[in-house]
Specification:
heterodimer, A: 112 residues, mainly beta, seven-stranded mixed β-sheet, four-stranded antiparallel β-sheet, 0% helix, globular, B: 114 residues, six-stranded mixed β-sheet, 12 strands, 49% strand
Chain lengths: 112, 114
């Protein structure tokens, strides 16, 4: 049972480039989330999908888009990367009716 | 808005020392409170939780009590081990404990030396 799988693990982009972070879970969870983790700021919610076919903005959605491709997969896209988007990105999922929130191992993104 | 404040780190302790990591929160409504732990190179894992006032969450020797009067949820462990070295995050959810929409504190790094 792999849990939540994120790809890639590391990525370096130049300002203005685009990329998609992939996330898949095999626990049949309905809800999925994207967080970013920055030093001294904890984790902040970017976007979430409460169920297949729905997406909503979190605390820091600017500069990002998401796609809930199916129940398993939830991708995060940076259309035009900026240095302020240098961060560690975590995908997470939770089953309907209860915690815990299950996290992937993160994608470390550097934008130069 | 809702927020969580944790004590500044890093916290450095010797093995078998007593640990306290302070966490206070501001929230409208009645939040559920959580402690998550992040080991190096990994994602966060739930350590313990409490869903209402005076509840005590516990796991792996760690404990935290939901104190509504002081809006606190301090993490404690009586005797830390080197394997407890990690980053600890206090978090809250408002309205339901069954959501992944959490507000996190900034994290506290714990280093335990042999």
């Amino acid at each position: 049972n792999a849990g939540v799988t994120q790809t890639p693990k590391f990525q370096v982009l130049k300002t203005g480039q685009s990329m998609t972070l992939q996330c898949a879970q095999d626990m049949n969870h309905n809800s999925m989330y994207w967080y970013r983790q920055d030093p001294g700021m904890g984790l902040r919610l970017i976007y979430y999908s409460a169920s297949e076919g729905t997406t909503d903005k979190g605390e820091v959605p600017n500069g990002y888009n998401v796609s809930r491709l199916n129940k398993r997969e939830f991708s995060l896209r940076l259309e035009s990367a900026a240095p302020s988007q240098t961060s560690v990105y975590f995908c997470a999922s939770i089953r309907t009716g209860g915690s815990p929130l299950h996290f992937g191992n993160g994608t470390r993104l550097t934008v130069t | 808005g809702d927020s969580v404040t944790q004590m500044e780190g890093p916290v450095t302790l010797s093995e078998e020392a007593f640990l306290t990591i302070n966490c206070t929160y501001t929230a409208t409504g009645y939040p559920s409170l959580f402690w998550y732990v992040q080991y190096p190179g990994e994602g966060l894992q739930l350590l313990l939780k409490a869903t209402k006032a005076d509840d005590k969450g516990s796991n792996k020797g760690f404990e935290a009590t939901y104190r509504k009067e002081t809006t606190s949820f301090h993490l404690e462990k009586g005797s830390v081990q080197v394997s407890d070295s990690a980053v600890y995050f206090c978090a809250l959810s408002v309205g339901s404990s069954n959501t992944g929409k959490l507000i996190f504190g900034q994290g506290t790094t714990l280093q335990v030396k042999p």
